[in-house]
Amino acid sequence: MIDKSAPSTRDKPRTPGKARLREHVMGWLFVGPFGIVFLALLIAPLAYALYLSLFQKKLIGGTSFVLFDNYVKAFTDPSFLSGSWFVIRFSLVSIPLQIIIALAMALILDAVTSLFARFSRLMIFLPYAIPTVIGAVMWGFLYSKSFGPLSDLFGLFGATPPDFLGGNLIFYGLVNIVTWQWAGYYMIILYAALQGIDPALYEAARMDGAGKWQIALRIKIPLIAPALLLILVFSLIGTLQFFNEPQILRSLAAGTISPDFTPNMYAYQQAFALANFNYGSAISFALGGIVFVGVYAFLFFTRKRRSFL
Amino acid sequence: MRMKMNRFSAAVAVLAAATALTACSSGGGGGGPTTASGGGASNCTNTIPKKDLPVVTMWGWYPNMQLVVDNFNKQNAEVQVCWTNVGQGSDEYDKFQTSISAGTGAPDVIMIEMDRIPTFQIQNALVDIKKYGYDAAKANYSEGAWKDVSVGDAVYGVPVDGGPMAMIYRKDIFDKYDIKPPKTWAEYEEAAKKVKDAGGPAFGDFAANVSALTMALQIQKGAAPFTYDPAQQSSIGVKLNDQASKDVLDYWGRLAKDGLVGTQDQFTPEYISGVINGKYATYISAAWAPGYLTGAGVGKGEDTGKFAVAPLPQWDAANPVQVNWGGSAFSVTSQSKNPELAAKAAFGLYADKESLTHGWTNQIIFPLNLQALNDPEFVNLKVDFFDGQQANKEVYVPAANAYKGVTYSPFGQYYFDAMTKQVSALIEGSVTGAQAADRVQEDVAKYAKEQGFTVQ
């Protein structure tokens, strides 16, 4: 990433040493601003967190170097494991749902060109523009058993509304919030990718006798496969690190959403409420490991299929 | 934590996003003013009238804190207080905890609930104020009040308000179903059944998110959760599954299972709206509850004058036990550069008559300062929220006087979280009360061992 000037020198006549040196310096200058920010704000904190995760601090006995003990503990800690299992299950349900909705919307909006389509596009995207915190609080109230619209609706039939903040339905309550918030954003990415397709292809397809469905399935979707892959990776990373929505809803449903509900919340709880920065860092890295493995595996398996996706 | 990303290479992005949270943490530093005494405090919520005096910083969340600080600054000629509200309860503790870990960023004086004092004391985050004016102030507070802010012989806070517990109830519901305030928990259950059979509302609420309340109710039946001698700091007694603790969880678990009480988390809009709409016949709570409820809009409009208060039901009416929920103190932090000045503020704040009177007339605090506690006006006050009932005289003052104090643990947050988890399971019906108590015991004892304690 840093020294890319080398290959070009072969074709050119040998440049004198001074000029090469200047080229070097210029290169560093260009990379410098990014490099400094990158090192100071990303690499250094990561290194520090990694360093912290190798220690253990006890209320009695102080800090000691324990190497990977915190990681061993994390991967045998029921709180961390159940939290990880939750986000994996959550990914399996919420990601396909979000992407199917986003894809359907994008294909519809791409096929229809009217003022209404532009308005719809904006409306579908709007939830993404609402900060997650406000979105979560809003849904918290919509789910309310006593003053939410659900209670009115079910009250009409004399039924009790489902409690989306209760232990059984919180999963779906959160799936709904996340889908509401993110489907519009993914829709915009897919829509932009669809707009980039050369219309001549459609014309050619139509001349070959392809209908609208066939164009969508055989031309459009394969051509936006890279964009689909991109949002899959985005949503996978985002969902495995699930934090904001459950953390906000905790203030409404502390009994249902425990502090170890997701691994990220557990790391936060350990570091900031229980002062175990060391274990909190270890959990963060362990989660980072899970995310890395998950995304790498995903990219690996889709690499071959991408050509006919 | 869902992130928006553009052109990072996949691997870097993954790793970066995965640990962004930790990255934030290592930046350290809680919000709020970081200047120690000696002036220069910038982020004050209040304006400091005497600019030439040294300044100490303070965090606190009493609703009338602004007035209290102004009163102090006006009357004091040695030191001025720069106050900020960084959040209530856990929000503030998380910030304080971060400052402790970072070694910087804490205020000079901090408002802490008494049950949290050992948690911070064991990290050497608080200053023993015995040599900074304790003797002069000693007579202003009861023995029990001092016990709750002490660890061993050392004193780590100035008591401000207490939370003697009682049973708040709705007179309209009690009248409608012809019920007298229950004197024992057995009567409480009977009354709950009677109301339910007549098609009435839930009799009370058993919530997972109020572990401090559940703990107090267990203590009332004779539980002694922690035994802890600060002289032997590394050894702690953890007894969270004795028969009393199990019985209390079984009792409330049964009431919840039979649908006699609600299971709504408290301090939520959902719960408050239930209280307003008469969904709960009683509210087992502390002396600060009327102020909190009034602030949340309860007891106004249609609900005016519908509430009354009775002493907390007992397990054994012949040997009543009074317990406490909440109550706060002002502590001096060990990050203070001038603990002597900070202690002056801790002792002086909310100790003047004007502030105290404002506090109790508005039901913001149940004062522990004897100057207020013995004030006939306070004792005889006819409380509007309770429709003119002399609540202090009849219920709260006797409860406060009979309160003996409790030994709290140095890992209160963990204990409360463990309790929340198990009470939540108990409400769902996946464990019995006895099992829940056993699991809390197992969980907390394991944590205590991990933290280096010898558990007895």
TrEMBL record, chain A:
Main location, first listed in the record: membrane
Alphabetical keyword list: Cell membrane, Membrane, Transmembrane, Transmembrane helix, Transport
GO biological process: one example: transmembrane transport
SUPFAM superfamilies, sorted: MetI-like
Bilayer topology: Multi-pass membrane protein
Pfam family, one: BPD_transp_1
InterPro entries named in the record: MetI-like (IPR000515), MetI-like_sf (IPR035906), UgpAE/MalFG_permease (IPR050809)
Residues in ABC transmembrane type-1 domain copies: 84-300
Compartments (UniProt record): Cell membrane
Cellular compartments per GO CC: plasma membrane
Superkingdom of the organism of origin: Bacteria
TM region(s), chain numbering: 28-51, 86-109, 121-142, 169-194, 215-237, 282-301
Record family assignment: Belongs to the binding-protein-dependent transport system permease family.
Protein name as it appears in the record: Carbohydrate ABC transporter membrane protein 1 (CUT1 family)
Native organism taxonomy: Bacteria, Bacillati, Actinomycetota, Actinomycetes, Streptosporangiales
UniProtKB/TrEMBL annotation, chain B:
PROSITE patterns in the record: PROKAR_LIPOPROTEIN
Alphabetical keyword list: Signal
InterPro entries: Bact_solute-bd_prot1, SBP
Organism domain of life: Bacteria
Extent of the signal sequence: 1-25
Designated name of the protein: Carbohydrate ABC transporter substrate-binding protein (CUT1 family)
Organism: Nonomuraea fuscirosea
